[in-house]
Amino acid sequence: MSSRSPDDLRLVTPQYGPGARTGEEPEDPHELLHRARRLTADGHPSAGGAWERAATALRRAGGAITPGDHGDALDATALDCRGRAGTAAGPLFSRAAELHERAGRRGKALVSRARALLSAPEPGATACAGLAELGERATALHAAGQATAAETATVLLLRCRARADLLDTGPDPAAEAAALRRDLAALIAFAGPHRAAPAVRDALAEARTLLGRVHAAEDPAAALAPLRAAVADRLAEGRPWQAVESTLLLAGVLRATGEQAEAAALLRAALGTPATAGALRSADRARLCLALARTLAAAGDGTDGDERVALLADAVRHADAVAGDSGLSTLARLALGIARAEQGRWREASAALREALSGLADDGDDETARVRARAWLAYCALCLGRPDRAARDFARAAAEVRRWADRRHGAALSHLTAHALHAAGSPEKAARAYERAADLWRSADEHAAAARSLRARARRIRELWGADAAEVVEREALREAARGLPDGGDGDGAADDARGWLRRLPEPYGPPGRHQVNVYGEVGGAGSGPSGRRRPEERRVSRVRGCE
Prior knowledge:
- By secondary structure, the chain is mainly alpha-helical.
- The protein is 67% helix and 0% strand.
- It contains 25 helices and no strands.
- The chain has helices spanning 29-41, 47-60, 67-79, 89-102, 106-118, 125-143, 149-165, 173-191, 198-218, 220-236, 244-256, 260-272, 274-277, 282-299, 305-320, 326-342, 346-358, 367-383, 387-401, 407-423, 427-443, 447-465, 467-483, 498-504, 536-539.
């Protein structure tokens, strides 16, 4: 759904995105208004479009939308702001809060203010302090009968989500995680007696999803029960669109615990239910396709290549339909290109990889995706008999990864650069690249691999300057081999199994930080990626979602 600039907030009736139409559309403005209210109560992804149609019909009939309905419409629109459109969510939520206050909905106003705080580009300690204050006000209003249990639970839930997003940045993440688990358990206990209300059941499912996410970093097995309960609650309510996040998280935990078959069945069910087909956002369908393809790859039985490629092609198609967010589309194309390369479909793979690379800024935060795209594109060029082009792309990828903490990636890519240069008829350049690779292998304490690079360098030197010059390098290779494994090997090492090395490159948008969620629904373990930075996609997955 498209977002609107703050100027739109000055309109009597803002222009909401079109959304997805569901079933027969009534013509009466009051029927349209009733439909928009119902879709909002259900958290349906087409609620924003329903509000636009209702507001338009009311205006044509000479009526006007009430402040309370106007606030609900702004909330629905803001909840669907994603990608570059996400910057519009905060002003929309803030305006919605003002309208709820005018309508006397003090509890709803607190929910909108909490969402406005959480939708900031980088909410930190200040936002958490503001959310804590809002939580206290919501609890007091609930005690006074001026806020519903659902509104109070939602404000408390949003505060917990903000704390979860900041767990990796605190001085003692383990203690913070333990405190957050206790607060989530208290929230679940508070909401339990009120679960007859659908909105409270939504809050319970969200709280269980978040509890599973926090558990997953330390104890994946402990995350299974709350995540399974969250998915079951969503599906029992007939709201598959709200089950996507918990489904992706549960599938990620199942993959981490080795339950690939159960993870695949879960994701297939989420994609294949007839009721789900027309209800899911395009971005959610794309992520589910990506996660299922990742699950099939993790199973590693060698029989899933065609299905993986079909899933990734679907992911590209659905991601392309998401306005204002090219990152998901780029990731899907990258995954599709790699899958086709692994099938030996070099030309098709190259086309997808070039498209992915064109969507990645040279100076942006997509460094890992850029490296993977260039490295696999180079591999395809090598297999297509274009070693000169392969050498250029391998060299550019190697230059980017040299500042990563794990030196082995730079070493392997330097070795592959050398291999391509030799194939392109440039033995002198190849010899220098092998030397760089050996130095990087040494710095990573990979002495056997350093010996392989040195032996390959010795062969190039023998071609160029004769046996005496090569013997010096061969003795150096023997010393390295003695420091490493008993047999340092005689082949080109990385070049002998290029695909193996390329598969070891870190995934784009992962691994996330220890308590962060990546685009596949996985929660990170130790470490935060090759450069020690967490990308926005890892920090902000579904940050502002939550029930009304």
